[in-house]
Amino acid sequence: MAEITAPRGVRDVLPDESWKWAYVLGQFRQIADGFGFSEIHLPIFEHTELFCRGIGDTTDVVEKEMYTFEDRSGRSLTLRPEVTASTVRSYLEQNMASRPQPVKLWTAGPMFRYERPQKGRYRQFWQLDVEVLGSDSPLVDVEVIELSLELYRRLGMTNLEVVINSVGCPACRPAYREALRAYLRPHLGELCESCRSRFDRNPLRILDCKNPTCKAITEGAPDVMDSLCDECSGHFAAVRKGLDLLGARTHIDKRLVRGLDYYTKTAYEVLSGDLGAQNAVCGGGRYDNLAESIGGPHLPGVGFASGIERIVLTMEQQGCSFGREPALDAYVIAVDETARDEALKLLYALRREGLSADMDYQGRAMKAQFKSASQAAFACILGGDEVARSVVALKEMASGNQEECAFDGAAQVIRSRLGR
Ligand code: ATP
Ligand code: MG
How far is Cα of residue 301 from the mean position of the Cα atoms in its chain? Predict the structure, then answer.
């Protein structure tokens, strides 16, 4: 029988890597908490309708990337491809409007998109996500952007580019869309097939097509900045001013667009110079009309999502530190059969004292036990002689120094040697 493998595009994060994830997640949690955000846990699947309306029918995500299935009672459900729509859904459903505004939330977890798997692009991947709901202040946009940059700073990431743009609002976007169509119309025949179909439905998305011909054509396209209404250009200026005040260097990228009506004003991305083709580590922006698109009242919002796989890849590429690789405080070694019972008692005594400790249960040879112990700070060696005298031989693995201590005092000695 053929062995069962994991589905295409998903990956196992093994212990050699999972500790790095834990480090990144820990830093993210600390920074988000420090910025006054609270954690929210949201469901992994939602009604398909939430994403169709909350992300938009004409996006790649909804058109081609969703994992949609019917449950046993025939409801159409979808594994979440992102978490913004769910956050807004939860805000409305849980009546978070009755809490002090704005509501500042963070979450982290797996997202699912049916895409062509490649380095940095998977079908199940994790995002770190923050969302601020209930404020249209440009200072909130600044806070969200700065939170992501503080994270990358804290993680030691460099060679990042922050690109920012404004996508306007329903008041000014129609005029821009028309200006764009007028510019593109003479080139319609030269555009790639998907862009030709975007022309009517969602021409803004032609601006971020990766096809070289489309790119060359859109090079001279009208600048969205020239079409912004007073409110949108004022908001954008205030965001840029806030970022300047904090010393955050950003470039305007007129190609950075989100072609949907409920994406408004600020759009931004953080790009890594060390990732190759999948270079976006973070995408975010404002979505003041999303709540209405899923049937709610007007509710301004802004947030970002950052892919943890791409963060870790960038950090590895750049030789960033992930903190200390987890290691056991102690590994208990029974020299022979006579010491096994005492070794087991010592193991649990250390664990009860809050030390991390492990031992071998298979009766392996001393050499094999010492090999396992080499990853620990201390080896606690027990033979018949030590057992008879109620002592433990403590070997500090890094230095090779060995000392003897009372069986009952072993935990305390280890703790004091570790400075805890
Ligand atoms: P891309 O242009 O790479 O497809 P996107 O615009 O689809 O990105 P967003 O929806 O803005 O990405 O998601 C935010 C972040 O989530 C991205 O910047 C990236 O770090 C990460 N991400 C998105 N899709 C994937 C994926 N399939 N695998 C791994 N990470 C991903
Ligand atoms: Mg994508």
Answer: 19
